[in-house]
Amino acid sequence: MRAQERRGSSGWSRRAIAAGMACVAMALAGCGGGGTATSDAAPPEERALSEQAALGEQIFADATLSASRRQSCASCHDPAFGHSPANALAVQLGGLDGALQGRRKSPGIRYLATNTAFFFAGDGTPTGGFFWDGRARDLAEQASEPFLNPFEMANADKASVIAKLAAAPYATEFRRVFGDRVFDDVEGAYQRMTLAIQRYEREDVEFNAFSSKYDAFLRGQATLGDQELRGLALFNAPDKGNCAACHPSARGSDGSPPLFADFSYDNLGVPRNPEIDRNADPAYFDLGLCQRADLTARTELCGAFKVPSLRNVALRQALFHNGRFKTLKDALTFYVQRDTNPEKWYPLAGDGSVQKFDDLPSAYRGNVNTTEGPYHRRPGDVPALSDAEIDDVIVFLRTLSDGYAP
Amino acid sequence: MRLTLAGALGAVAAAAPAAAFAVDYLTAEQAARLMFPDADRFEPRELNLDAAEMQALDAQGVRSRSARWSVQLAQHAGQPLGVVVTDDVVGKFELISYAVGIGLDGTVKQIEILSYRESHGGEIRLPAWRRQFVGKTAASPLRVGDDIANISGATLSCTHVTEGVRRIVAVVALARRNGKLGP
Amino acid sequence: MNRTRVPTALRGLVVVASLACAGAASAQSATEVELGRRLDQLAAELAKVKAELAQLQQQRAAAPATAAASAPAAAVAAAPPAAPSTAQGPGLAEPTTAIVSYAEISYSRPTNDTKNTVADLGRFVLGYQHRFDEKTKVVTELEVEHAVSSAGDRGEVEVEQAYVERQLSRDYSARAGLFLIPAGLLNENHEPNAYYGVFRNFVETAIIPSTWREGGLQIVGSYDNGLTAQAGVTTGFDLTKWDATSTEGAESPLGSIHQELQLAKARDLSVFGALNWRGVPGLHVGGSLFTGGATHGQSPTSARVTLWDLHARYTPGRFDLSGVYSRGTISNTAALNAPLVGNPTLIPTSFDGWYAQAAYRAWSNADYSLAPFVRYEEFNTARSFADLGAGLTPAAAPTQRVTTVGANFYIGSGVVLKTDYQWFRSSDANRFDLGLGWSF
Known about the structure:
The structure holds three protein chains of three kinds. By secondary structure, chain B is an alpha+beta fold. In chain B, 31% of the residues lie in helices and 25% in strands.
């Protein structure tokens, strides 16, 4: 359960994980807990990376580690876009020739230092884990999959990854840090490679910058404009956006800044995205949590995907696990009009009825969240946010992008 | 007992109790003198109540508690002035020592608090609260919330001291009626 | 024959002592009266010794009945009672340990919402007072709320008091540790037989967060004019605990941010003072003030919490009349609330409440007494909010009004049965209550 403690994480990360676990363990049913990092009085300073993290930085950006020699971690997790994709594709392309479509949208990977392995909280809420379905228990395990994924970096096996690593310019450094004979043992070298990436993602201040305008506002170093403040109020108000229920916006009582995610899962019934080739087959469904080998019996979790952090959301050009919406305006309008105007979002059947939640088999459509605001309205009801209010919220969401300078 | 003058003084010097620190406000002797300033002598007397008298007290609603009472008869030039009784009751946890002075007519002359160590309710030692007892007799209710006002936050201390005074007044009245307090 | 031997032996002892002190005797002439007085004093001492001896003989003859009369009602067997009941002179202060306990059980039935009827062992408190010597004692109280406390249950176990009290001089004593703040009428005196009604009144739970305790140091002065003054330095509240998403802060602002000395943030300490005058029997008038920082350097804004109260209680004859007014304020709430806009429960700038209560001891006999009472209270846990801008500033909360009518039935000196009916501003909350409590 605490696997990430194995390799001498810094005391800072350990405390952060403990704090994160504690917050996460107190999550309410559905959403509504709080993910927070450690306390900050000022944005984290640039610190020199440890040797392992420095190696991880180079590995992260090294495209030669892929079969096509053109794809690195940074290709889909672009630092300039909040470590999210730099394009508006629903799903990134990869594979040997760089033309294969993957399965799900590449998530942003910032602000995950306090996330934990997957577990069921005391009240049964699924919490934690990495990837959209939480199947990886830590950043290292998550980093280990893309190398071997045929739709992504498409290496045949670990040995071929290590062979490429051994030929990289930083291989000497790798040998110096991990031992001269490290490349002789493929499993061991592979594991060390992923751990180096994990160290990089935890230590590099870019992944935990807390340098947005909202962070400055929380520190008392900036004021929000009127529209931004209105947007924040709509974001928080339970009878309006109710966004803070799953994307907490308040500091923790230990002073830690909000992560805008509670690392839990929700089923929103996002419409099916025709952009994904697999969806051409009507029998194909991406069922999220219950598609994991260890959760196939939990059919009530079918259709649930991890709640992502909203930090840097304004930099993302495709949203939700299937990249169905490309703009915040569309996404927020979907949130508040999903149930008041379902015909705008879902296809009509032959008889004219709306095929709501068409990205789920009919057996699982009952799993979709229809009890928490703003999803608990009915056709004909007034949406929780008006068009102008959505714009206010979007303006507020823009304050969550790192790199604010007054 | 007959003793030489010097012997008496010396013995007294050896036997006089020292006043304890702080929460002991008065000694019994000081209290007795305050209540009967004209007295020149306090004669100690043992009151032993027999079973019938104990029952009579119980019937009055006074818990007699003990059959043996040590009292002091205040006298001036051989003439009785009244009686002083010292006693202890529990406040909430701590003992409260007090003395009651009763005149010849059975009315309470005064009560004095000798020592008090509870954290609350020290106001019972102030003249204002004690003054309420002056003039009470065995016929008075002597009950908190009735003819004796409470000290807010010290109900148990007030109640127990008041009960104690009522008991002493009843015991003394009974003893006097049965001639046990004669010269 | 035995009984004459004792006085003879004592007489002999006194003679020896007197001969030894003969030289030290004062040369002043003493009248016969003076002699007589001294004689009487000696006789008194002698009588005391005789009484103790008789008692010892009695105890040896295994007759326990009369000697226990003065034992403290709740003394643990650890130490014998301080003195026999007929002792004369000041009470002794041998170390003693006494157990303190009180408990409250309630049944509450909302008339218009009976599905929410609840019966609860609201509080079970166990504590001890241990007196080390005549100047020093320690007072502790441990409380279990709602009967069962565990990770999956809703009860709580907490230490309510744990302090040392030392008598410094005749008028002054000091307390250090976790102690109750002297505010209102109920906080320091909160046992079930000390208040009217099944539940503690709202002003002294929602505004003054009874049972309110802080850790620190306190000096208590009790003066001969009936005035008691208390002042101290303690821990305070923690505004970083404010949860804008829950309703706790709306139910009791200070109750939701008190620290109870539980890993309490203590960079900002608070000070308090209280004056209570009981110079006239049956009249008690007083007030308190508590103020201190509550952000402990953990927020870019620093803010201060202040709470003050005025209270009075008058008990002429069988009546028991009382009233309390209390008001709390928090500074800089605009800056504290800015990141929380839109949430249901923001930090109020002010909150206050008052009540007036009248009780009358309608009937009593040696063992029982019945006291009906009526109480009217008004309180507002969010009287005002700082301006955050148009459309963003929360509206002040509506003022709650509660009328309570009921009776306390006292059994002996420590047990009480209670019943009452409460009318609220919203009739959904009107309820009928029954309660049982005891305290010793």
